[in-house]
Amino acid sequence: MIRGQCLCGAVKYSYHAPIVETIICHCLDCQKAQGSLFAFNSPIDQQQFVIEQGQSALKEFFYTENKARVFCQHCGSPLYSYRKDLPNVIRLRLGTVSEGNIPAPKQAFFVQHCPDFLSIQLCQE
Ligand SMILES: [Zn+2]
Ligand SMILES: [Zn+2]
């Protein structure tokens, strides 16, 4: 069982399946959206994901027409994204997980935008 929340605690969620796949993405959209040098995400089964508290605190931002980025409107924590054309998958922002096992990432994307001072093994050639 995975549990997580936003920074202020208004939004709490649980995930009722194991997290299998984790991904690091250095693309410039992810950097801007997370306010960080990379995003650390997992594609998870939307059916097993439950907002336990704070549904009304969630806001969606569509930078592109197809993809919603969902965040807490009180504290701004990015929580997950979903694509309209992929109905059963959401991409959980793993920095919001507070309980449960997160496997190490096997893939990093857009490593050309990974700064040299970050020695993430996945980003080395
Ligand atoms: Zn919050
Ligand atoms: Zn990205």
UniProtKB/TrEMBL annotation:
Alphabetic keyword roster: Lyase, Metal-binding, Zinc
Pfam families named in the record: GFA (PF04828)
InterPro entries from the UniProt entry: CENP-V/GFA, Mss4-like_sf
GO molecular function, one term: metal ion binding
Domain (CENP-V/GFA): residue spans on this chain: 2-107
Source organism, top-level taxon: Bacteria
PANTHER family associated with the record: CENP-V_GFA DOMAIN-CONTAINING PROTEIN-RELATED (PTHR33337:SF40), GFA DOMAIN-CONTAINING PROTEIN (PTHR33337)
Family: Belongs to the Gfa family.
Protein name (record): Aldehyde-activating protein
